[in-house]
Amino acid sequence: MVKEFGIFIDGKWNDASGKEFFETVNPATGEVLARFARGNAADVDRAVASAVRGYRVWKEMPAPMRGEVLLRAALALERGKEELASLVTREMGKILSEGRGEVQEAIDFFKYMAGEGRRMFGETTPSELPDKFNLTVRLPKGPVGMITPWNFPVSIPSWKMGAALISGCSVVLKPATDTPYCAARFVEMISEAGFPPGVINLVPGTGAEVGSPLINHPSIRAISFTGGVATGREVYTAGARRLIQVHLELGGKNPVIVMDDANLDLAVEGVLFGAFGTSGQRCTATSRLIVHESVFGKITEMLAARVEKLRVGNPSDESVDMGPVINRKAKESIMGYIDIGRKEDGHVIAGGGSLEDGEYARGNYIQPTMIETRHGSRISTEEIFGPVLSVIKVKDYAEAVSVANGVQYGLSSAIYTMDVNRAFQAIRQLESGITYINAPTIGAEIHLPFGGVKNTGTGGREAGSSAIEEFTELKSVFIDYSDRLQKAQIDTESRLKETMSESGGA
Ligand code: NAD
Predict the structure, then answer these.
(1) What is the pTM for the complete model shown?
(2) Residue 453 lies in a domain
(3) Given this model, what pLDDT does residue 395 score?
(4) What per-residue string of b and e applies to 238-272 under the rule 16 or more CB within 10 Å gives b?
């Protein structure tokens, strides 16, 4: 018998309102891992009611004290790290070292946010009037909703929750249907820290049946969403109708530029990791390799030799380099793109096939693939979200930047060059929220802002201290200790005249 989960409200698991369940499976083996209630609008109502109760208590707790609870949550995750990492690997399919890295990111972020409880800075500024004092304070937005994808089933909920919780918000999480088990264990582990009941809530289920009612619930004050552009558009539109803040983190088509003066060995290592780590299913995955024509032949040959040697298999086996993709539908879509690449006159440099036999029979495996293509083809501009690297030849730096910027997305970018002037120009000219110099497009650190430009998002940032801005409102405070009515603008003008005539000024 596999474990069954309902909805997490009021600090514990409860039965869901309906009787329907869905299964979560290991994409490497097809093994059923757990069964989850298929939540509905009634469950969302119950979870939000719980979040409203939790919010009343949590927002009154001083932020440094909330930080203390977050620190305990980080320590609980540290104790459970190996278990959670192994679950990430079994449910999502990334290799174990990446699963550990993902849980470490959640631990680090909760620790970092615990410290933010003692910072939560506002501003103090002079008043235009005497005996008056002005400042700003940050206050929580209220109960907030979070809708997350399957590719980082622990760290994305942790980024959103860490920032929301330290800000004093309560949360209702709707995890992706492919990875609810990771989210459930994450919530159980951090709950060991002793959050007041109702501060953290989780409702599993589909976007239409849980996500949509969550966005439309009148007590939800903000939505933080990570996922694809098409879904993001729907979420944004629904949020706009309610005039609530919607933070969107969407897709990418991240380029690595390799210039003629690059350290090619380093670039090969970086591209290999960036393109095929997590089977290319990272929002920051390297999906385009843009190469200066004078090193094109050399680097494609070096890279193809390494790609062919990548060991694909069950990600729980520590000798494996690349696991499966998330599900059958994703596999079909990725294989479809490889076909499109071929039909667009793309030249398959490495891989290109589906892995079906023997150890691969029950999982969703694809060969790591490199396809030479031209800028403007579908495989060079659309997000494939799998282990497929489009390789594009360019004649110089200007063309490289123009190709890099010639897509709707702008999440991460990278350039390999030894020319410091070029590197600094690229920082300014590449249209992306993140740029790496001589490093791959993946590997963000939690204390820096994370997010993209153009269709990758709405401009807000996760991670770093700026994440708090997504979950707080600024309040301006005016304290008048003059004991008389002072009128801004009106009294300022008369005082100015008085002062100038006293000092004999014109
Ligand atoms: P998705 O858009 O299909 O789903 C994301 C979440 O939205 C899921 O929980 C899903 O159930 C929910 N959802 C679906 N329809 C909805 C609706 N109408 N209303 C409310 N919620 C709805 O994305 P996915 O396949 O889970 O994730 C892959 C995508 O996420 C890729 O495009 C990837 O680039 C992107 N991503 C972006 C970042 C980033 O930080 N920019 C990080 C990770 C993943």
Answers:
(1) 0.96
(2) no
(3) 98
(4) bbeeeebbbbbbbbbbbbbbbbbebebeebbebbb
C-alpha dist (Å) from residue 144 to 27, 42, 106, 300, 405: 31, 17, 19, 47, 34
Same domain (yes/no): 113, 181: yes
Q: Is the pLDDT of residue 398 over 90?
A: yes
Residue 91 shares a structural domain with residue 205: yes
Q: Tell me, yes or no, whether 465 lies in a domain.
A: yes
Q: In what order do the strands lie in the sheet with 412-416?
A: 347-350, 369-372, 388-394, 286-292, 254-258, 412-416, 434-437
* 220 and 365 fall within a common domain: no
As given in the structure block, the two tokens for residue 241 are 């109708």
Domain that holds residue 299: 254-445
CATH number, domain at 266?
Answer: 3.40.309.10
Residue 283 among the catalytic residues: yes
Mutate to test the pocket of ligand 1, among 182, 237, 241, 283 (most ligand atoms within 8 A of CB): 283
Total number of residues shown for the chain? 506
* Burial per residue of 114-141, b for 16 or more beta-carbon CB atoms within 10 angstroms, e otherwise: bebbeebeeeeeebebeeeebeeebebb
Count of domains forming the chain: 2
The pLDDT assigned to 491 comes to: 85
Distance 235 CA to ligand 1 centre (A): 10
In a domain, 466, yes or no: yes
- pLDDT surpasses 90 at 285: yes
Q: Annotated catalytic, 169?
A: no
Residue 505 located in a structural domain: no
